[in-house]
Fold each of these.
Amino acid sequence: MNLGIIGAGSLGTALGERLAQRGHEIMFGGGASAQDAGARLRARVGSNAETVAFGDATILAVPFAAIGAALADAGPLHGRVLWSCVNAVKPDYTGLAIGFDNSAAEEVARRARGARVVAALPPFASAIAAGQLCYDSDLEPTVFVCGDHPSAKQLVERLVRDIGAHAVDAGPLIAARLVEPAMMLAVSIAYAGVPRDVGLRLLERTSLMPGPPSAQVPA
Ligand SMILES: NC(=O)c1ccc[n+]([C@@H]2O[C@H](COP(=O)([O-])OP(=O)(O)OC[C@H]3O[C@@H](n4cnc5c(N)ncnc54)[C@H](OP(=O)(O)O)[C@@H]3O)[C@@H](O)[C@H]2O)c1
């Protein structure tokens, strides 16, 4: 599919490279870094609005502080699938700028009026760029997918699988309030002292789980 990527930094370029390898057509939106990424990956480059218009979906990979400017330049977003990769990490990486009763995902949705916003924080850009996402035990890292539009979530889950990660439906967009601190924990562990290449994985044991209460038949 055609994919627009707004934000051609570490994450945006790593995603663009992997998704292009999976057969997607990429356009980067932005300034000098988008031009560099476009030249390196032989991808299209345009304004943020042109990038949104090009994409069957748009990936937002800018710092939290830049979401207002990036989305103000993004043109009409109504009905568009917008995959937000944004975590509300403070510029000095010491923690999250917002949380508990708000999330970067919800701030994106407030600014991207009418868009079908899906929040899914990818694994570290360095791991995506390395081309082999599996960690020890051959487990792919989990990407928790949050959103209020089922078809948009399915599209993003497909793209998450295309980069080699394990997509898990984590519920509505508001669940990003829980996912963003979890990813901040990974950032904190990765960069505390000696850098570590870590990822998050949801383990699941389906065989022992009882069904939901309504499905249980009294003896
Ligand atoms: N890096 C990771 O491993 C990772 C993993 C998961 C989630 N994330 C999230 O992904 C986002 C990006 O992270 P990053 O590490 O890739 O940051 P980064 O390397 O600093 O790149 C940010 C990019 O955003 C661009 N940008 C800023 N304002 C823009 C605007 N108004 N329009 C278009 N582009 C704009 C910058 O372009 P210029 O340089 O030209 O200003 C730069 O290319 C963050 O929200 C972060 O929390 C990152």
Amino acid sequence: MDSEYKSRSGTSYSSVRRRIANSVANTMQLLHVPVEDTRECGTSPEVFDTTSDNDIMPEYVRMDFQPTTDANVRFGFGDDGEDDNDEVSLCSYSDNCYSSSDSDVDDQHESEKPPLCVQLAQWAVHYSVTDTALGKLLSILKPHHSSLPIDPRTLKKTPTTYDIKEVVCLDGKIGHYSYFGIQCGLVDLLQQQNVYEGTTLVLQFNFDGLPVFKSSSVELWPVLCLARQLSHRPFVVGLYCGSKKPASLSEYLEDFVQELSSLLVEGIWYGDIKLNVEIGCFVCDAPARAFIKNVKSHTAYYGCEKCKQKGVHIDYKMTFPKMDGKLRTDKEFSLMSDEAHHHGPSPLAVLPVGLVTCFVLDYMHLVCLGVCRRLLAFWLRGPIHKDSTSKASRLSAGAVRQLSSKLVNLRNSVSSEFARKPRCISELDRWKATEFRQLLLYTGPVVLSGVLSDAVYNHFLLLSVGITLLVSPKFCGPYADYAHSLLCLFVEQAKHIYGEDFIVYNVHGLTHLAADVKQHGCLDLVSAFPYENKLQELKKLVRKRSCPLPQIIRRLSEKRTAFSELGVVSVDRILCEREHTDGPVPHGYSDAVQYAQLNAKTYKINIKRSADCCVLVRNIGPVKAVNILSHCSAVYIVYRRFEKVLDLFESPLSSSCLEIYKVCGCMPTLSTCPFDDVLSKCLLLPLSAKSDANNTKSLYAALPIVHTLVDERA
Ligand SMILES: [Zn+2]
């Protein structure tokens, strides 16, 4: 058993590369692509480097993973407070929120707390307390604290005038627009940093439309900016609100384009330091991309933004069957040479960026909400009268029940990084993007085995593995070409399994994903997940139906004022907590302090909870953490190896190449490693209903939680 373990998890990086290269060769043969060229591309980091115009993001991705190196039990940490919007993101922390749920931290900073009026304002803003309730509270407190104002608007310094301009909506009615500015948001973020040592800020932008109310057509079109070097959360640059989207794209983008053009030339000054500004990319869903670029929609014949092929109408759907369509170039776009693609010039054309290569295909919309949802819809409600092959993809009622039951059985095994537990397939229409991601990257390979036919299951794995490679900060660089070949094979085979009409825009878009990753970095660096959180946050700021835009402006201003009163607050975040004396403690660590929980930046290890104790250790593989020790100013993980470590699946490549394993049993021997050697946390999912925490001989799947790694490294 031990030798079997070594043969899997002890595999050297070069032999993993060889195995992947062999798998690439096999895949290429299926695709009829010359093997030699692709193998060279797939394993050559140089290709990844030279295809990029922007050396910031790929450099970031190429870095070896360095877990938190701070050896102290506590470390300074400005971001605190869990994200309360669990719909799409799980592990981001509030950027400028003065709050801590930890009593030790509160005690430590008791003497540094701001005045009562500032604390009250922050509390009211953070919990969205209504003015009526806050006014009542102030009237109760006023006799005891004479310095407090009686009016909640005075306490929160609510602005009474706003800079709003009128713009015409698409339906001819009047909408409203307010511009806050890019520089203003960046300066706010810089003020929250203790030190920023970089010289260049690379910015991402998002445009999107969302309905404000369920029962009316009022739409918000925010412009959001994300400066990843400063924060994982986007800030608002501008806000439009109207009965339809803006009639004039130039009017909507005028302030934005003007300021951004100036920043690209002038940079921004922070104190006496000049910072250069660069555009990373634009991250939007397909309708917003078409709107902002002023091109045909994704349902039009020439709707693909990356290639020039003419779509084919099948059953009232636009499909894009070719995988070798001639690629669009930035230069052709700027010349508008393909008239069938453009509605007219885009106001963004004056910016020095490529409007083809810098508008990424966002995988949250394209893959999670697009392809993954479409697959499930075909399995549940797909056509059954086409031909014998399409029948094979639709599940029987019994298989659907089995799938639901398997998903629900995983609820207690899902780790604390996931805000949503797996739920019944019957609730599919209410699934959020994170739930599709959970199925695609983690639970799918486990629960779909035995439910789908072998052919359909292996076809699903092409998508799952391809996207896992592109999500992984470690694998996306060297294996982008291999991932591309897997996704192309997925699209090609999908025609035969699900029919020609399956290859709609989203599915076809898979063939263009790897090119974006090569230029901009792994998928989570350019996904809409953080923006979607922000959009939902903005929507929640609207309390009354009348004048939504001024309401949002007031709330944003109150928040900014309340937290800037305090300046930078560096709350010591607890690295290790829940001290205990229960052991086990290996020889040589008898004077160490024992803890039950370790809080890394984007995940936590909890030895008392079976769903939160599996981690991937450098050069070892998946292990079960059984204790956390603080010893000689360093933190160590005490762990037990698994008795058996096997591949979870063999196709399209051995899952161990992705550090995904099937594991069983725990060895009695204790081992120890520095926390620095923990590469990631793993999900530990039972492979049969009989598996449970007490039955150590049951089989489990151990899968690294890859989608959190990009922020862990930041
Ligand atoms: Zn295309």
